[in-house]
Amino acid sequence: MSAALDFWFDFASTYSYPAAVRMAALAAHADVRVRFRPFLLGPIFKAQGWTTSPFNLYPEKGRYMWRDLERLCADLDVPFQRPDPFPQNSLLAARVALAGLDQSWGEAFCVAAFRAQFGDGRRIDDAAVIGDLIARLRIDPQPVLAAAGSDAIKQRLRAQTDEAQRLGLFGAPSFVTADGELFWGNDRLEAALRWATRSRAGSSQ
Amino acid sequence: MSAALDFWFDFASTYSYPAAVRMAALAAHADVRVRFRPFLLGPIFKAQGWTTSPFNLYPEKGRYMWRDLERLCADLDVPFQRPDPFPQNSLLAARVALAGLDQSWGEAFCVAAFRAQFGDGRRIDDAAVIGDLIARLRIDPQPVLAAAGSDAIKQRLRAQTDEAQRLGLFGAPSFVTADGELFWGNDRLEAALRWATRSRAGSSQ
User: Fold this and answer.
1) Cα of A71 to nearest chain B Cα, Å
2) Which of A27, A131, A199, B75 is surrounded by the fewest CB atoms within 10 Å?
3) B82 touches chain A (CB under 8 A)
4) ipTM above 0.90 for this complex
């Protein structure tokens, strides 16, 4: 049986971009089954008294982050552009992702939405952009966008965000193993996969 | 000629502990000459409106950090104890380190002070503890503690902290290469060493 890992992310989260791009190959190599769990950081930041990204509130940290992300993307050989505005409203992308994750194309959509925003400088709060990303996956965008606006999906995204808050998540990307171990940040992805694999080894004894 | 890297840290900084412990072997392996640069995070945090560590201000982030540090130390096979109180006053340790870095025992003292605090649960604001750490390096503590209280050393620590602020440092550990590239966090140490090595290769062409 594969080990399991939950991958929590917000589409506006900068370091979730390299994590999403790296996920498929690393998870396959580690034989870990990863569940993509989009949520909204906004309510969590608000609970900490932040009205925007901490990278905007603390300009020196923000300046560093953009340079660091640029270097990371160069090392990964993936395109990078600083999104404008930042942070983008990630609500629509998160709802569409939830619709897609019920079907086979959800993970591909997530990676495509991250690349569109942080690689190609496109706006993920624009329904035309999101529709285009869906169409490139050879899926008809109209029923998906309709589903993304349904009460059922809205409710699921709220529940997902509530669960993130209950888990004590304070940033993204975050990774949670089946035995409840939390890892935060793109640079903890390898450690999270190792932990997931280790707990599988333990549980099979 | 060896490449150069500045290692900026505050003795109260949690993730500076694994960075300090790992430094010697990694720097030697990369053939990078590392300069230890203790400074005080307090004035920098204060400029951001923080009166204590952000790990105290944001309890969920703090809870995560302690667990993360515990895991990191277990992976490195170094002892870990959560210091009480946290953060500790790092002024005395920083002044003694500056005195020691003029001589041959400064780096060994820095590693010993981190281990004492985060490995053995000792208080680094206690002159008796700091004196003991100096004595274990086979150095007479009294003249060192006297030098650490001199105006010259006080002034140098202030200048060091001013320079950190001018460089835009916002946390520790931070690593700055000779060509001005900034890397933040224990998990960027390897990348900083790679960058330092790369710029050396470039400059010799």
Assistant:
1) 10
2) B75
3) no
4) yes
Q: What is the three-state SS of chain A? A: CCEEEEEEECCCCCCHHHHHHHHHHHHHHHCEEEEEEECCCHHHHHHCCCCCCHHHHCHHHHHHHHHHHHHHHHHHCCCCCCCCCCCCCCHHHHHHHHHHHCCCCHHHHHHHHHHHHHHCCCCCCCHHHHHHHHHHCCCCHHHHHHHHCCHHHHHHHHHHHHHHHHCCCCCCCEEEECCCCEEECHHHHHHHHHHHHHHHHHHCC
pTM above 0.90, yes or no: yes
Taking an 8 Å cut-off on Cβ atoms, the answer to whether B64 and A182 are in contact is yes
pLDDT per residue of chain A (205 residues) written in tens, 0 to 9: 678 999 999 999 999 999 999 999 999 999 999 999 999 999 998 988 888 888 988 899 999 999 999 999 999 999 999 999 999 999 999 999 999 999 999 999 999 999 999 999 999 999 999 999 999 999 999 999 999 999 999 999 999 999 999 999 999 999 999 999 999 999 999 999 999 998 776 554 4
Cβ separation A64–B187 shorter than 8 A = no
The answer for A 146-205 residues in CB contact with B (under 8 A) is: 168-171, 182-185, 187-188, 191
Q: Which residues of B touch A184 (CB under 8 A)?
A: 64, 68
